[in-house]
Amino acid sequence: MNSRPRRELPEQLFAAAQAQPNIALVKYWGKRDAAFNLPVVGSISITLDSLWTRTAVRFDAGLAQDRFELNGKADAEEARRVGACLDLLRQRAGVSWRASVSSRNNFPTAAGLASSASGFAALVTAGAQALGLRIDDTEKSALARRCSGSAARSIFGGYVEWARGERADGADSVARELLPAAAWPLRVAVAITSTAAKEVGSGPGMRRTAETSPFQQAWVDTQESDLAAARAAITARDFAALAEISEHSCLKMHALALAARPGLIYWNGATVEGMRRVRALRAQGVPVFFTVDAGPQVKAVCEPQALPRVAAALREVPGVLEVVDTGLGEGARAIPAEALAA
Ligand code: 2P0
Fold it and tell me: Which residues contact ligand 1 via a Cβ below 6 A?
């Protein structure tokens, strides 16, 4: 592969993109290959709308090394992952220029709100555009997956499935849209119970789980039927069925991680109380269910008319700092440079 800049390239290549986090309803936990970042199971998610990452990428012949800043501050820890992701794009384009990446989140980073999903989906989208790569969303999803697993899903909007895939090179481990957001516009109230970064990140947490949890094989063996149930519920827009399978997948993932050695406890007291409140509301006929990721926030998914009641109930839970609400949104996309300042 020719890694020298082609002669016709300008001095700089710039693009910007926006992506939103996604929340898995049928969870991803565990890798079958670390190098290509391939999952042991498929997963199903919803892409959100009002929480976002906006990222600008500038490849520049004059830069000696990649630069990365998040919310206006240099971030050395994340810079390595960003650099590795840029390497995949550079390899694909046959370009060796370093890049300056500036990213902004309008929500807390690394607190179980899938900032890596929106972050790497935005980075791949902006980077591919800047380099003039002619690749479709499926290929973007494969590239985003290598940067962060759940980022594969944020390339698409609405209801999304990321396939486990069979191939060793991961070409079939990509996401696709199951249903557009507008076809079933559910809402999500996110109860924030802590803004601290988690003690054990998802990657190390998945590794520890696979190596020590006695439930790992059962997790893998039961995923296909959960995916089928969630797919059917989404196609039929059957809220009760989606509620049942989503809470089951969430609690099963946490049971798996809790059984690792030492056990992974991603919850705090407010997380548990929040889940109980959501169950109590549903028992009263309110169409709502919960899901919780590798962090302490409670995400309550509901029908639109139920949102005020759900948000009010979560605000009353001791330890809930804030309730953010959002609808379902689009996949990652290029945006004009002016939009970055907004
Ligand atoms: C998910 N999570 O399906 C699951 C549920 C957290 C709990 O995907 O190592 O940041 O980059 O592939 O995608 C978080 O893990 O992990 C995640 P990597 P990622 O949303």
Answer: 24, 27-29, 37, 43, 116, 148-150, 202-203, 293-294
pLDDT at 108: 64
Query: Are 192 and 76 part of one and the same domain?
Result: no
Does the predicted TM-score (pTM) go above 0.90? yes
Question: Domain range spanning residue 195?
Answer: 187-326
Number of domains the chain contains:
2
* Per-residue pLDDT tens digits for 204-259: 999 999 999 999 999 999 999 999 999 999 999 999 999 999 999 999 999 999 99
- β-bridge pairing 67-70 and 98-105: parallel
Q: 297: helix, coil or strand?
A: coil
- Going from the Cα of 112 to the center of ligand 1, the distance in angstroms, rounded, reads 9
